[in-house]
Structures are given as C-alpha cells and as structure tokens.
Amino acid sequence: MGCLAIGIQCLIGVVFLASSAGKVTGRRAFDRFVSSVAGMQVVPFRSARSVARTVVAAEGAVCVSLAVPVPAATVVGLAIAAGLLAVFTAGIALSVRRGVRTPCRCFGASQSPLGPRHIVRNLALTAAAVTGAATVTAGGTATPGGVAVAVTGGLLLGALVTALDDILDLFRPVEARTHPYGP
Q: If phi over 0 gives left and psi between -120 and 50 gives alpha, with beta otherwise, what is residue 143?
C-alpha cells in the first residue's frame, strides 16, 4: 500500500472511531444520538433507535476493517465508510433543506446544529474514502519515513475533523448575555 492510502486509512479510521465511540460512551450519549436521528426527520420516529444502532454497528465495522492489515479489508472498510458518508450527507442535506436545526451528534456531545459545513465535511471525507480505496487497489511502495509521515498526517487530520465543530464554534460571535448584577 502506498503512503496516500495509509494516510487516508488513518484519517477515516480516526473519524469513524471517534464517531462510534462518541455515540456509545454511555446510555445518555446513545440516547442523545437517537434523539438527533429522530430530530433529523428523515426516518420515521419509531425507526430512529434501530437506525442509530445500525449506524453505530456500521461505523464499528469500518474501524475493524481498517484495523486489519490486509489490503482487501482496507478496501472494504473504505467502501463502507464512503457509503455511510454518502447516506449521512444525503440525510443532512435533506434536513438542512427542510430547515431542521437538530444538533449534529456526529461525534457525540456537540451542540452545533446541522448545516452546510457538515455536508461539505462529509463530501470531503467521502472523496477521501473513495480515493483511499482506489489507491489501495493500485498498490505502490512506501518507505518507513513516508509511512511515518502518512500515519501522523492521517491521525492529525482525523483529529482535526472530529474537533471541527468545536473549533468553528470558537469563532462564532458571542450572543449578548444578561448578567444577574447588571449589563
């Protein structure tokens, strides 16, 4: 596998690991995710819990597939990731188009409402997953130094993607707040 494929494997692996872990770190976390799925209004309310379970299981499958050091497993993991991301993108786009402002529970406890940035993020991740799958099948050689850079870059970029909502929220204007002792 070439360095590009390794870097993308790490990027997608971190994103899906953080995503699945953020949804199952406790019953309350999973319940918040179920509420978010229901709040998106793209599946019937009664199906939200089943859909949420399926999402978490599929995200776990991506993580396991990407952890197996076999190129075919990596391709399967990246293909599942691309499919999930495409479905997530379509669901978010439909919700945004309808004016739904439910919080994005993509990585757990975020309060950021779904919006265009989530669509762009998912489209970029879909493109990365497809590119990664194509580069795994194309083969290629990798030097130890190249692998180290690819792994480090993929892990850092994955961490950045998972924290993107929090980072962007730092730059949102602070709303006027009333202080109990005056202005």
A: beta
Backbone φ, ψ for residue 182 (5° rounding)? 130, -175
| CA 46 to chain CA centroid, nearest Å | 24
Could you say which DSSP state residue 47 is in? G
Q: Cα–Cα distance between 130 and 80 in angstroms, integer?
A: 10
> Which residues, 6 or more positions from 177, have their beta carbon under 8 angstroms from its beta carbon?
none
4 within 8 A of 150, measured Cβ to Cβ: yes
pLDDT digits (tens, 9 = 90+) for 14-33: 999 999 999 998 779 899 99
How much of the chain is in helix, strand and coil states, percent to nearest 5?
Answer: 75, 0, 25
pTM of the entire predicted model: 0.89
- Nearest one of 97, 133, 130, 131 to 115, comparing CA atoms: 97
Task: Read off the pLDDT band of 65 (50, 70, 90).
Answer: very high
